[in-house]
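Duplicate of #3305? Posting structure anyway:
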């Protein structure tokens, strides 16, 4: 019988529970322009993942955060957005003030 790795087992359990597994692409090694640190952990610079309580007006939200790229990811429950001009801390602080946002977090690099 073939032995499974811990990560394979974790992915299988998450899929069985209906959780979406999102694999992030790692930026180039030591490329500080694509990486920033939030609470001591590496994250994609200017990128956030957002869950909403209700559907937002995406056009105005894009303008508010100066988004140059955005898409729903996974099973469509999370919105990934990248800002041209804001860092992760600024994006999270701004999004936390919106009543339609359930939570916003950095797009951590795993």
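Output from current build:
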């Amino acid at each position: 019988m073939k032995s499974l790795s811990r990560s394979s087992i974790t992915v299988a359990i998450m899929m069985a529970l209906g959780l979406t597994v999102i694999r992030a692409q790692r930026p180039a090694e030591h490329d500080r322009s694509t990486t920033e640190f939030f609470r001591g952990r590496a994250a994609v610079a200017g990128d956030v993942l957002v869950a909403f309580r209700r559907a937002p007006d995406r056009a105005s939200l894009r303008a508010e955060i100066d988004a140059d790229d955005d898409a729903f990811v996974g099973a469509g429950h999370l919105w990934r957005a990248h800002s041209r001009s804001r860092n992760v801390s600024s994006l999270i602080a701004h999004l936390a003030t919106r009543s339609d946002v359930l939570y916003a977090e950095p797009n951590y690099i795993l």
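Confirmed duplicate; merging threads. Confidence is low (pLDDT under 50) at residues 21-30. The longest helix spans residues 6-16.
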